[in-house]
Amino acid sequence: MNIRVGIAGVRGLSVLAGLRDLPGVEVTAFCDIDENALMRAAREHGIPQTYRVYEDMLESDVDAVVVATPMQLHVPQSILALQAGKHVLCEVPAGVHMEELWWLVETVEKSGRVYMMAENCCYFPENRIISEMARRGMFGELYFGEGEYIHELKRRAVYPNGKISWRSFWQFGRRGNFYPTHSLGPLMKWFAGDRIGSVIACGTGWHTAPQFRQDDTSITLCRLESGKLIKLRLDVISERPHNPSYYSLQGTLGCYEAPRGMGDDHKIWLKGMDPDTDSARWRPLKQFSDLLPPRYRNATPEQLRIGHRGAERFMAEDFIQAVRTGAKPEIDVYEACEWSAVAFLSELSVMNGGKAFDMPNFRKGMPRSEQVTRV
Fold first, then answer.
1. Per-residue confidence of the chain (375 residues) as pLDDT tens digits?
2. Looking at residue 322, what DSSP letter applies?
3. Do the beta carbons of residue 114 and residue 87 sit within 8 Å?
């Protein structure tokens, strides 16, 4: 079964090589509103069909689309694609308002097509090792995790031509954690089978760049249904080196910490490695690289050069596999909506003095009576 894919947005070209590495997959169309970027990318990558109007691309013979446009377009464009009978691989986050998420879930269920959120951090090799260690119980019972997205982005509030960018409104114009999925996604995969029960957030206020509504730093606590905790930090304002993918994990039998810079490395400690915690010392995570999934261990050097050490390639593979088999995608619409909804609940919480807001239980056939934000 050959699958023809169309890509919307220049950001979506990051998955191009991963799609082309898969047998029976063709990238036949590319869409972008910027005609210069559109034609340049089409020539560079040899994409035969080009469109400036997204709806025109949906009328072509593509079977699936990659939605990689600005975040406020993700739900409208995903819905249009699903209604046109196309499968969807959508960039993060899934949407920018809670109401949109209900529309997205209902459309996915009615369409019978595959919707997958393209959270590539879940595919980082180190995060896959930790997933396997957690699955095997090597950390014991998990009860606390952290994720951080620290990436100074203030200059992106304005385009090079001086015009105000969409980020000025949909990122810097909001409070709370507007971009939670990079930090949250891998953690939720480690806490497999659990879900977010409630969200609390606080912000530091405005010190570095008070022209923006976004706090210098916001801290979000996700209390899982089991009572366990996940802490998220978002900081796109502060003057500091960026570290957009820090994680830590704590269980009853051990822990993991990602690097923080200056030559640091991914590291773990498990009970029994040392006589006691007074003499405990970190071990490099790479000692457990044999726990990587076989496709990572058996990947060619070329495949591992495809975006984040193969992450984009394996993400594309899972999406195409779901399209071909009808199996549940790696990050389905229910997970996509729950993780993305953390943004909206954290925004409400930080503007209400850290009040806790319950997370809706996104699931198949969710009744309209539960499609609410409880206060």
1. 799 999 999 999 999 999 999 999 999 999 999 999 999 999 999 999 999 999 999 999 999 999 999 999 999 999 999 999 999 999 999 999 999 999 999 999 999 999 999 999 999 999 999 999 999 999 999 999 999 999 999 999 999 999 999 999 999 999 999 999 999 999 999 999 999 999 999 999 999 999 999 999 999 999 999 999 999 999 999 999 999 899 999 999 999 999 998 989 999 999 999 999 999 999 999 999 999 999 999 999 999 999 888 999 999 999 999 999 999 999 999 999 999 999 999 999 999 999 999 999 999 999 999 999 998
2. H
3. yes
Q: How far apart are CA 67 and CA 118, in angstroms?
A: 9
Q: Could you give the CA distance from residue 87 to residue 282 in angstroms, rounded to a whole number?
A: 44
Q: What is the number of H-type helices and E-type strands within the chain? A: 12, 15
Yes or no: is domain 120-293+332-375 CATH 1.20.1730.10?
no
Distance, in Å, from the CA atom of 221 to the CA atom of 134, rounded to the nearest integer, reads 21
Residue 43, number of CB atoms within 10 A of its CB: 10
Q: Where are the domains of the chain?
A: 120-293+332-375
- How far apart CA 369 and CA 117 sit, in angstroms, is 26
- The answer to whether 123 and 303 are in contact (CB under 8 A) is no
Which tokens belong to 337?
């909506």
Q: CA dist 154 to 51, 164, 168, 211, 244, Å?
A: 31, 12, 9, 10, 15
